[in-house]
From TrEMBL, chain A:
UniProt entry keywords in alphabetical sequence: Oxidoreductase
Domain FAD/NAD(P)-binding: 3-309
UniProt keyword Oxidoreductase present: yes
A molecular function GO annotation: oxidoreductase activity
Taxonomic superkingdom: Bacteria
Protein name, as recorded: FAD-dependent oxidoreductase
Amino acid sequence: MNRVVVVGAGPAGMAAARAAAATGVEVVLVDSAQGLGGQYHRRAPESLGGNEIPPIPGVRHLAATTVWALEPVPGGHRLHLRTGPADAPGRQATVLDTAALVLATGAYDRALPFPGWDLPGVFTAGAAQALAKGQKVAVGSRVLLAGTGPFLLPVAESLIGVGARVLGVLEANIPVGGWLRDPLALLAGRAKAAELARYVTMLARHRVPFRPRTTVIAAHGTDRVTEVTTARLTADWRVRPGSERRVPVDAVCVGFGFTPQLELAVAAGCRLAGEFVEVNEAQATSVAGVFAAGEITGIGGADLSEAEGVLAGLAAARLLGGQGETPRRAIAAVRAGRRFAAALDRAHPVRAGWQSWLAEDTLICRCEEVDYGALCRAVRDRDAIGVRSLKLVSRVGLGACQGRTCGRNAADLVGGLDPAGLARRPIAAPVRLGELATTPVHPNERDTS
Amino acid sequence: MVVSVAYSDVVVVGAGVVGAACAEALSAAGSTVTVLDRGAPASGTTAAGEGNILVSDKGPGAELELARASRSRWPELLAELREELGPALADVEWEPKGGVVVATSAESAAPLAEFAAAQRAVGVDARQVTPAEAAELEPHLTPRVVTAVHYPEDAQLQPVLAATTLLAAVRHRGGQVRAGVAALGVERGANGAVSGVRTSEGVLPCGAVVNACGPWAGAFAEAAGAPIAVLPRRGMVLVTGPLPKTVWHKVYDADYVGAVTSGEAGVQTSTVIESTGAGTVLIGSSRQLVGLDETMRVEVLRELARKAVALFPVLAGVPVLRAYGGFRPYAPDHLPVIGADPRLPGLWHATGHEGAGIGLAAATGRLIAELVTGRPTHVDAEPFRVDRPGVLL
């Protein structure tokens, strides 16, 4: 119980673990990947020329370990862990208790559905990025990027880096206007602005057009995508009639912002603010002994995540008697970063007009093959306007991904769904029935399998 | 601003399967009905149920009679609704698949055989089968079966579809279903009887109110000034990923019967395993007395998994995709509460069905409609009366 446990080894989680360990308390860092770094620092294995991130002094790193359940116990929380490759039998089961938990579970990128988005060759920007950085593989040779937000730019750079020809970056909003309207935020994000300028230069050098208020509204092909339809958009993302163009491609990557990975925070009972975890100035959630840092508290990039991680790790350590100096730099960085994040959010919203791109038979939930028509019928004919009733009538979100891909989109389409209800997954990662049957439920118990 | 609100003969509070069945039967009897739910329809206990329509778990007595009436009413009702609403809207994944109750130890074999004999004596189709016959019914069942009973009458439906089909019929007949409207209490007329329901959106004038709030029925009864003892009993269910057909019937361990009828506090689990139309396998069910605490307990899930693997070893390698929980409404004597509140004319209760609400809903709705409209009842309503010992507070 007397230890800080950090879940997630991305920028926020690593910073939290480092800050907590610096105070001398025991720290355990849990992550499902083999190496440190999370999605942001994803890199190729050493065999492909990548470098491992060195271990953090004073931190016990539990690699390849998933937290599949979290429950409250007197004085703190109990994490149920499985270590080993997710699809292999014989994963080792352990139980970890903590009075000071830091959740840094991050976010996954959001794709909006459009006709043909389920064809092979349509990727999320994050998946394309992971393949490029982790495997040195390009998702295609003629690739179009579409979506909203600055994340499309590093993805374009990575794709170019592994030899893809990027035909264009289509930004559904108008970022520059949104930025200039908030000079304070621009100031706060000075470093970020320089980073963006560098990407813009990079695109120009490779003759990659950047088109605002434009997106991909359909993908075409039989076995895989061979062509897409792009269109110019109105301010609320409806298609400007007559602006549709067919573009031959062999891959398309879409990214419309990020969805926080909330199941552990929801299991702990943390209050949400909108769709993110609510935290105070010390990154404490509404639940005693639970802190949150990084993208689950708002989308603001790696620097903000890291600064939040420092605050969360220190606050968690102090709860256990750890001593550390007030992290003035991190406090200032969080303050500036949040202003920048708010401006980012204002400049890159997902606007309601995307719903007009859908056809009756466009899949909303790919796991369970629920199309837009079925979702509308569930609401119209059966009043399925609650999270549970909508799932059970339409089967949206009941498949392998448990609504991680489709939940946010279904929520937009139906309206009024409770974000915590959508993220309630008491089994936070799949576990075999036999594993569950033999799982230890107390720290001194052994896996009996 | 004065809003004119139409008068309803009956306001049903709670749009779960029991409220929906009451509203359907009342509207079929010619009443104008408004159904209220503070949240989304069919999203409480109904959405947490497995859709059991069981006679197998009930010993001779009033609840078994209600269950048998409901078992014969469900297919009839669904056929009527198919005529009225069309096949798509009346589809509730009805499956008269039958149940198999197994005893895996000598200690549970004799009580199971006795229980089945008593059921047979009152007309339940309960067929004692040998382990070999059980293996034919369920090829993946553990070879440790000592004896089993086959109940061909047990059936299953998808509870959210069932409730929303019933509500669609109410609307089709001119009734209203109002989601997101909370019932806060009742208004009384000069004669002391119910004259309206006070809601988060103003007063709805009506002649009668049916309290079908399930585990929250005690709270609404208290708000209405006529408290009753209905408490929540927590349950959890595990759901696997989709599989090729592995489980054919509703299969459960003989100890389920003991857990259903037990009043003990703490955690109890007893295995109920069945596949759904979507190919997933549902594994229930636990019983905990923890109030309305929604916290998930891994210990409970482990017990469910342990017993499921013991009955169907083949399931050990199957991924569990999700777990969900809910609250069953129960009265101290574990019988449903169906009837008039003697203290407040015009207030009716239809709750306390514990884990059997889906199965008992069809007959409960019909019984409420008969009672409210003053017609003879198709089952004896006396055992479910509200003023029995322990229910009135």
